Amino acid sequence: MSFAAIRDKVRAGERLSLADGVALFHHPNLLEVGALANEVRERLHGDRTFFNRNLHINATNVCEASCMFCSFARLQPGDKGAYTMTHDEAWGKLRARVAAGDPITEIHIVNGLHPGLPFDYYTELLAGLKRIQPSIHLKAFTAVELHYFAKKFAMPVADVLAALRAAGLDSIPGGGAEIFAPRVRKKICDDKCTGDEWLDVHRTAHRVGLRSNCTMLYGTIETVEERVDHMLQLRALQDETGGFQTFIPLAFHPDNNALMKLPAPTGVDDLRTYAVARLMLDNIPHIKAYWIMLGVKTAQTALWFGADDLDGTVQEEKIYHMAGAETPQAMSPAEIVRIIRDAGRTPVERDTLYNVVAEGAALASDKPFRRDVRRSLEVVS
Ligand code: V47
């Protein structure tokens, strides 16, 4: 199908097919694909661009799985670089934010598949964080972890979720999806849950009323057909449940892992993947440009290629920085607001469920952008 025919379908609100998605990946004019994705982005959100104040906790990197793209995991507790936080260490991360007067609204918790930790390590981890800040939203444990808990502790996924919810779980992050195609999973992540199992955990979470996010790891050995097929499987589940809030394309980072011979995706591939995602996923409200992984400049540019969310302040990140990410570990709300405004968009501080926390004059960091330029001019004059 020609690009013009695909554009007509998008403007008529018709669904795109696998062949359309593949054609968009092959269309030579990146800016046309981006502009079409931007039309959809603006139809849904206008100029509004979302971010939150959050903190990442990766409580352990000990992991039974051996995903070839992962630089974070260590197989055994005694291995070089392996760590497991005590509850006090993990809780200390939140205590430090509270002591600093930083009004974070979310903690994002993702861990390795540790063979030796009891289930109550996880429930107590959540419960302790809620004791420190009862209002905090806990977005915790990927579908891969939840599937692992179900097998290891011989509980149905619904019971695992019920117990974690009772301890403080509020929603599920989108990690671990990688690429659903069995051909790719067999080569890059053979020993964790399958794509169908990943989808089934989210189906169960949505049925019990939890919201979740979804991701796609791109830039390893997958074809563009496999990327589009991945998006279509997410779209089909969303038709069924409506529980996904945000799709996050995750660009492969090649340092310090078994796939380090592969090149990282190029900037054009990043922007095109964001744009195609916005166009294919007509039923998922948000597309997140996770600045930690994309790089701040590409994430800012992606706000014109379909993305409407930048994730948050983050504070401390391990998974990508161990894989060679050169982004900072944290951005202040003022810096995020500056980046959004400089892109010609309107910043909105949200909570995890996309309720508005602050916008317009109420944004705590409501300072004019280019203040750094002005300041240096003052120094010169
Ligand atoms: O599951 C691991 C990916 C994910 C590498 O839900 C890698 O809001 C690229 O899921 N290169 C974890 N990717 C991160 C994640 C996430 C991040 C931000 C927000 C949300 C959300 C979720 O990172 C893993 C895996 O797919 N990953 N190693 C790597 N070398």
Average the pLDDT over all residues and give the rounded result.
93
Which parts are unreliable, with pLDDT below 50 for 5 consecutive residues or more?
Answer: 366-381
Q: Report strand %.
A: 5-15%
* Largest beta-sheet characterization: 4 strands, mixed
Order of secondary-structure elements:
HHHEEHEHEHHEHHEHEHEHHEHEEH
> What gap, in angstroms, lies between the N and C termini?
58 Å
Bound molecules: ligand V47
Write down the Rg: 20 Å
Structural class: alpha/beta
Strands side by side in the biggest sheet: 9-1-10-11
What shape does the CA trace take?
A: globular
Number of strands: 11
Can you give the helix content as a percent range? 40-55%
Count of DSSP H/I helices: 15
Task: Provide a concise account of the structure shown.
By secondary structure, this protein is α/β, with parallel strands linked by helices.
Describe this structure in words.
By secondary structure, this protein is an alpha/beta fold. The chain is 43% helix and 13% strand. The chain has 15 helices and 11 strands. It has helices at 3-11, 18-26, 30-45, 87-99, 119-132, 143-152, 157-167, 182-188, 195-207, 224-241, 267-280, 291-294, 296-302, 333-342, 371-380, and strands at 48-52, 54-57, 106-109, 137-140, 171-172, 211-218, 244-251, 286-287, 309-312, 346-350, 356-359. It has a 4-stranded mixed sheet, with helices on one face. It has a 4-stranded parallel sheet with strand order 5-6-7-8. Helix 3 crosses helix 11. It is globular and about 55 Å long. The model is unreliable at 366-381 (pLDDT under 50). Ligand V47 binds next to strand 6 and strand 7.
